[in-house]
Specification:
Length: 261
């Protein structure tokens, strides 16, 4: 059992506060974009084009992440003060929302530029899950997305009044730690599989299936609100992602396509 005493706020200057959440999120995005650009170049894309597209994909991801989180927590956190939905620096981003928002933005950019979207997704898969792993470090420091209270043998309590947990001094199941470890395992697997001559999109579908399984089972340790059938919003989306991933994988052609963008 561990107590986290780190203040989520690094420093303040007047009304401005630099938070660990924002800093680590920026690092995660930078690493993910850089790795995606390198892998995309190997697959025939131009790095500069990827960096340019990444700006819009990131904006779409952040918008989707915040929207899904606010909808999920509306009655608990935002109904009484809706303006807080705009306070993104306080934390509160839904990973599934980021993925959905980023996919929509990426699909629009690929369509506009005439790119093969499945190939772009394959290039992004390793960097995406690595960024998700790094992002969970922010949750550990700030107390965001912690699981249910626990009596052991492994739990985190927080002492800073700026922590995002419901109650200070209470030990919670460290769900972000479990996600961090599983995401690193998925990254290692994708990194080793990325050179296989698979059909475009297969590597991303492998990521989607594994990540959906992770989110579904780990969410049983979470304190997220139950939506229906005894499942959380994250689990319901995970089941949908798993169904889509498995269906597309079954119908995917076995032979790789031509190596053109």
């Amino acid at each position: 059992m561990f107590t986290i005493s780190i203040d989520p706020i690094i420093f303040t200057i007047g009304p401005f506060a630099l938070r660990w959440y924002a800093l680590i999120l920026l690092i995660a995005i930078a690493v993910g974009v850089w790795l995606t650009a390198c892998e995309a170049e190997r697959r025939g894309f131009k790095k500069d084009d990827i960096y340019e597209a990444a700006v819009w994909i990131i904006l779409g991801g952040i918008l989707g992440a915040r929207l899904v989180h606010v909808l999920d927590q509306w009655s608990n956190e935002y109904a009484a003060n809706p303006i807080r939905a705009l306070y993104i620096w306080e934390g509160g981003l839904a990973i599934w929302g980021a993925l959905i928002g980023g996919l929509i933005a990426g699909a629009l950019i690929a369509w506009r530029r005439g790119w093969r979207f499945p190939r772009l997704l394959d290039a992004a898969a390793p960097g995406l899950v690595l960024a998700q792993a790094i992002g969970r470090i922010a949750c550990v420091i700030t107390g965001d997305a912690m699981g249910k209270p626990t009596r052991g043998p492994f739990g985190f309590a927080y002492s800073s009044p700026n922590a995002l947990v419901s109650q200070l001094g209470v030990y919670y199941t460290p769900m972000p730690i479990y996600e961090l470890v599983v995401n690193l395992i998925i990254f290692s697997l994708l990194w080793n599989l990325r050179q296989n001559r698979w059909s475009d999109g297969k590597l991303f579908l492998t990521y989607l299936i594994l990540y959906s399984l992770e989110r579904f089972f780990l969410a049983f340790t979470s304190s997220y609100r139950i939506i229906a059938f005894g499942l959380t919003q994250s689990q319901i989306i995970a089941l949908f992602g798993l169904a889509v991933g498995l269906t597309l994988l079954v119908w995917m052609p076995r032979k790789p396509g031509r190596r053109t963008i």
